[in-house]
Amino acid sequence: xxxxxxxxxxxxxxxxxxxxxxxxxxxxxxxxxxxxxxxxxxxxxxxxxxxxxxxxxxxxxxxxxxxxxxxxxxxxxxxxxxxxxxxxxxxxxxxxxxxxxxxx
Length: 104
Hints:
Nucleoid-associated protein LSL_1227; YbaB-like_sf; single chain
């Protein structure tokens, strides 16, 4: 009976440690800045790991009033590039927590 209580207490401590580590990793990921680029850096965007855009840079030569569609495409390419990097890093960082848990 005493042994079972010790195992449960040990398991709870391990879960608390795991939860603390997950939060730390998530906080670090959220604070990381990811850049997305399009067409030789004609458009560069910056996002934090929690998907908040912090900056966008558009080179003057990418701005053509007669071709707004091109600029829109470049912005989309840069944003999608950044999102892809965030997703990849999130999977690498947080995936370790769900690999050995059934059902996740």
